[in-house]
UniProtKB/TrEMBL annotation:
Mg(2+) binds at D7, D9, D126. Zn(2+) binds at C89, H91, C97, C99. This is D,D-heptose 1,7-bisphosphate phosphatase. GO terms for biological process: lipopolysaccharide biosynthetic process. Pfam families: Hydrolase_like (PF13242). Its main location: cytoplasm. It comes from Pseudomonas fluvialis.
Length: 176
């Protein structure tokens, strides 16, 4: 199957160092919604793996997070596409969970859900932890320059990391 896994903040929607704490703060990155719709209409399954430590930190609750994901699904559906499984890590950095990126637990959860292998599956992120999670399970690490991507570009990237301007450029590439 054609599976693409996306990080959320900084890839699909604008990110903030103050976290994305409300539906009003959840603002799609230009071209991202259309990119997801184009890919899903072309037969790609687009899943999401997102750290949401703001839950553990008490910045927002599960219902607020769910409202953001409902909005994402609604906007993509309005373009004729659909969003696949969205998995989030609700834990904080000190909780010792197995799902918080750079650990690959969410990627493995998505693979198990779809019954597919991870090696070579593109995982698109804006943070170094996204790329490290990808490498840990032999996904193809893909960095976008949106969100924290330009900051991440200055760090030591996993070997073979692909770099694109944004999610729209990734869709253009995959739909060639
Ligand atoms: O990029 P994804 O995984 O979708 O989500 C990232 C968010 O959960 C937040 O992750 C935080 O990192 P810490 O969780 O505090 O280390 C910060 O980087 C915030 O700026 C960011 O909004
Ligand atoms: Mg991110
Ligand atoms: Zn977790």
């Amino acid at each position: 199957m054609k599976l693409l896994i996306l990080d959320r903040d900084g890839v699909i929607n604008e990110d903030s160092d103050a976290y994305i704490k409300s539906l009003d703060e959840w603002i799609p990155i230009p071209g991202a919604i259309d990119a997801i719709a184009r890919l899903s209409k072309a037969g790609w399954t687009v899943a999401v793996a997102t750290n949401q430590s703001g839950l553990a930190r008490g910045y927002y609750d599960a219902a607020t997070l769910e409202s953001m994901h409902a909005r994402l699904r609604q906007l993509v559906a309005e373009q004729g596409g659909e969003v696949g499984l969205i998995v989030h890590c609700p834990h904080g950095p000190d909780d010792g969970c197995g799902c918080r990126k750079p650990l690959p637990g969410m990627l493995e959860q998505i693979a198990a859900h779809y019954g597919c292998a991870l090696p070579g599956v593109w995982f698109v992120g804006d943070s170094i932890g996204d790329l490290q999670a990808a490498s840990a399970v032999h996904c193809q690490p893909v960095l976008v320059k949106t969100g924290k991507g330009l900051r991440t570009l200055g760090k030591s990237l996993p070997a073979g990391t692909l770099v694109f301007e944004d999610l729209a450029a990734i869709a253009d590439q995959l739909l060639l």
